[in-house]
Hints:
- With 422 residues, this protein is an alpha/beta fold.
- It folds into 2 domains: 2-54 and 370-381 and 406-421, Urease, subunit C, domain 1; 58-361, TIM Barrel (Alpha-Beta Barrel), CATH 3.20.20.
- It is built from 12 helices and 18 strands.
- Strands 1, 2, 3, 4, 5, 16, 17 and 18 form an 8-stranded mixed beta sheet that branches.
- The longest helix has 18 residues, at 208-225.
Amino acid sequence: MNLLIRAVQIIDASSPFHLQIKDILVKDGIIVSIRHHIDADWETEIFNAEGMSVSPGWFDLYAHLCDPGYEYKEDIVSASKAAAAGGFTGIAALPDTKPVIDSKSGIEYILNKARGQIVDIFPIGAVTKGCEGKELAEMYDMAAAGAIAFSDAQHPIAEAGLMMRGLLYVKKIGSVIIHYPHDDSLAPHGVMNEGISSVNFGMHGVPALAEDLMVVRDIELAEYTGSRVHFSCISTKEAVSRIREAKQKGIPVTCGVNPVHLTLNDTALSNYDSNLKLFPPLRTPADMEALKAGLIDGTIDVICSAHQPQNEERKKLEFEYADPGIINLQTCFALANMALRDSMKTELIIRKMVDNPRRILGLAVPTITESSVANFTIFDSTASWEFSKVEIKSKSFNTPFTGMKLIGKPVAIYNHNQFQIN
């Protein structure tokens, strides 16, 4: 297809047109011209993007797609639709499915089912068989089949020796372990952050220490092995501090954050809304500020959705018994934008959703230059909109943000010679 995008601001630090307002002409999936004004012929579709911005396509480093095994919550097709509506052109799919993606055949299943979607879906292989934390999975075979990283999703690897062996293994194949930092032995029954709010609400707490201890352990293991660890979603001020120190020492660690943790704190649980139950849990206002500071100074590399669909039966329960997680592919950018727009430039927010995730995974980063393959997201960082239930593309509806006024909207994406307007 031929597509002309008119009067759009380009946000791409690797492009010579960075922060300039230009017309962009795409033919058959290739950006053929970027000029102040381009004339279009009758065969070219014209999209007026005045007042909007375009960046290389966004990438989500941490999402539960539930396929295979839990397709009633989400599947690859519905996840792709939700991701496209959220401005993403690529997703890294977590392996905690049924069966767990812990073999070559599981990786091939994901790649085959994702073929032809406008959103690229990259499988993450399990570190341990069944994500059980007992025995290493077939990581070499999975990497050869197309696994871009390894993770046990929200199943922390408790045994330090097993984690060390996993790190040594991925070092040989040039990959990375994405780890959820949590010591469950410190909070086996916790459902929310341990603190004043948990006491007031009468619920079992998850101490920040449960995250902080695992972060420290993994930093030590990364330094010892020289292998790379990416912390999936950090939530505490101490974790930010420890990772900042590790980076200053040159230890190969990176980390991400879920923008929900930048938007809400544990006081939001006063009405016991099970849609706000997530792991790691909502923390304190002080933790929120530390996370924002970590994003600003580069300690936190990635903003990710941590998209975790749950069917209605698992959420319409008392808070203590409900399953954790929210759908967040469609709201991820808006939440990050609202939390950070007064303290970070839009281009820096976008970098944590474009460049950094792909570089951590060793993927090529798209660019908006002439002769490059077209892979981009058009968005309006000032647009005000309401996230209504009818707009949800996921199979599940577990989100506290329906009916809420959001600021910052993905307008369209282009990938694989396909153009989708939201």
